[in-house]
Amino acid sequence: MRPNTLKVTANGYAIHCRRADVQRVLYEFHNYYKSSVNNYAKRWRFPVNGPLEIRVTGVDNPADVEIPGAVTPTLSPSRPFADHPEWDTVVWLDILTFPGTPYSLQFFQECEQ
Predict the structure, then answer these.
(1) Tell me, what's the pLDDT at 39?
(2) Are 48 and 97 in contact (CB under 8 A)?
(3) pTM of the model
(4) Which end of the chain, N or C, is less surrounded by CB atoms within 10 Å?
């Protein structure tokens, strides 16, 4: 980073699901996000003024690195769930806005819920 690097606040999520459910997860999030942003705009509030980043990956699988004895990272948000082996995919959502944007913290809190 440099002093002139654009600074943003990121509110991110890692949603674990089955690969077959990715389209449903994205559809439901898109509908929620669009509705929420529109509801704020009706009140002339614009809590998000940056991009929405979406990525889809697999979960961390030690076999993928092809190093003997590799283990799953303990603190990884894409760590597999032992009690849900069917959740083999992670949908990453990052909502970006400039720091201090009015209503952004309220918006992020509502997204959490």
Answers:
(1) 97
(2) yes
(3) 0.86
(4) C
The Cα–Cα gap between 57 and 67 comes to 20
Helical segments of 1-90, H only: 22-42
Q: Count Cβ atoms below 10 Å from residue 59 Cβ, excluding itself.
A: 19
Give dist(CA 95, CA 20) in Å, integer. 24
Please, which contacts does 76-80 make with residues 24 or more away whose CB atoms are closer than 8 Å?
77/14, 78/14, 78/16
Residue 8 CB-density burial (10 A; 0-12 exposed, 13-18 middle, 19+ buried): middle
Structure tokens that stand for 54 in this block? 């979406």
Confidence of residue 74 (pLDDT cuts 50, 70, 90): confident
| Spatial distance between the Cα atoms of 59 and 31, rounded to a whole number of angstroms | 25
Order of strands, sheet of 52-58, starting from the edge strand that comes earlier in the sequence:
9-17, 89-97, 52-58
